[in-house]
Amino acid sequence: MTGLENEHIICISSIDWDPIWTRKQQVMSRLPKSNTILYVEPPVTLLSPFKDPKTWSKWGLWFKGIRRLNENIYLYSPPVTLPFGNKCRLINRINQWWINLFLKRVVSHLGLDKPIVWTYMPNSVDIVDEIAERKLLVYDCVDEHSEYTGLIDKAVVTEMERVLMGLCDLVFVTAQGLYDSKKEFARTIYFLPNAANVEHFMKAQDPATKVPDEIAAISPPIIGFVGVIQDWIDLELVRDAAVAHPEWSIVMIGPVGAGIDISFLKPLPNVYFLGRKEVKDLPNYIKAFDVCINPFKINRLTDKVSPLKCYEYLASGKPIVSVDMPGVNSFADVLEISNNPEEFVRGIERALGEENEDKLKARLEKARENSWESRVEFMVERILEKLNS
Fold first, then answer.
1. pLDDT for 52-84, tens place per residue?
2. H-assigned helices in 217-321
3. pLDDT of 175-215, one tens digit each?
4. How much is the pLDDT for 298?
5. Alpha-carbon distance 87 to 103, whole Å?
6. Where are the chain's structural domains?
7. In CATH terms, are 8-195+371-387 and 198-368 the same topology?
8. Alpha carbons 115 and 122: distance in angstroms, whole number
9. 8-195+371-387: what fold?
């Protein structure tokens, strides 16, 4: 990839660099290495550790200051902020002012002159004009943020996002529903779905890829899920599949979010929670799957989601069963789509019983059409058009 060279980029992310890689890390890690990138992780609030004790560790990251990841990417975790910033715009303004007191020093220390500011956070509307004199403002919208549960006010988040989009030179969205709902608020907007690290996940088809002992010990057929287990995952659908077919092994790989109740699944002997795994090891685990599942709840949040896991499943070559959501409609020819729990179970039955070489080849071909390299190339082209206009 050529063209976007020797730029300074400040990425305001909605997720830490580790441990779960999503669109943010995939994009930033693929930009040309001549660019200097500051990846700003989301802050925790004073209340965060009381909701999720794992966030106590984030308090210490602020004191570490700038953390160098590699030759061109630096990480920074901002100071602790006040709660309710997504419920009250005034609190958000205070929080962003507070963050910027420290962030400006980081920007100055790294010599990030006239950066491209690349944000994933609607609440960054109150900081993007303050960080530095910028070349370009990019908003990559990956979710309907106003539909998240928790300490948010839908109207406040919606308004912050609309103002942000009005400031932006470029807006990318991951789902058609996001494009339809936001196009009137952005000057230049593009629909650009998620993708997969195709070469990495295709290792699941490599005979040399070793299956880890903990999943090799589980009886097949294995019906597998990979992803963060949050409130948008339909665990009752998982239970229905496990109960309908006790001979199946349902394997859930990924961290369980704070406050997510999995206790009703624990008594089922054929449901396994294996916890978070390193990105590098995921193909090894997926190799053991007979079918991959995408059990999202259907609501206003998931209606506008581009399910990253489906792209990675495709690249693994494994059969896939998904709930019916707009984000998977373009894959209807290569996966099973269900409208209710009974159809979900029947879809798994068909995926197990009707797999063949032609279906495998079709999934891998679809995956190759949806690589992160192609997505980043599109983004870079659009950015260069703006810079050169």
1. 888 888 888 888 999 999 999 999 999 999 999
2. 235-244, 282-286, 308-316
3. 999 999 999 999 999 999 999 999 999 999 999 999 999 99
4. 85
5. 23
6. 8-195+371-387, 198-368
7. yes
8. 19
9. Rossmann fold (3.40.50)
Q: Which two tokens stand for residue 268?
A: 């089922």
DSSP 155-204: HHHHHHHHHHHHH-SEEEESSHHHHHHHGGG-SSEEE----B-HHHHGGG
- What string of DSSP letters covers 78-139? PPPB-S-TTT-HHHHHHHHHHHHHHHHHHHHHHT--SPEEEE--GGGGGTTTTS---SEEEE
Residue 2 has pLDDT above 70, yes or no: no
Name the residue type at position 144.
E
Vertex 72: Cα angle to 97 and 138 (nearest 5): 50
Half-sphere exposure of 363 (CA within 13 A, CB side): 27
Q: What type of residue is 229?
A: I
Segment (H or E) for 141: strand 136-141
**Is 245 strand, coil or helix?**
coil
Residues 17, 39 contacting (CB under 8 angstroms): yes
Q: Which residues are CB-neighbours of 317 under 8 A, at least 6 positions away?
A: 202, 204, 205, 360, 363, 364, 367
Please report where in the chains the tokens 């990251």 appear, as a residue: 61
Q: Which two tokens stand for residue 179?
A: 């494009």
Mean predicted confidence (pLDDT) in 372-386: 96
- The arithmetic mean of pLDDT across residues 150-175, rounded, is 95
Nearest to 279 by CA among 11, 93, 26: 26
Cα–Cα dist 203/117, whole Å: 35
Assess contact for 259 and 323: CB atoms under 8 A: no
Tell me if the domain spanning 198-368 has CATH number 3.40.50.2000: yes
Can you tell me which residue has the tokens 């797999």?
Answer: 355
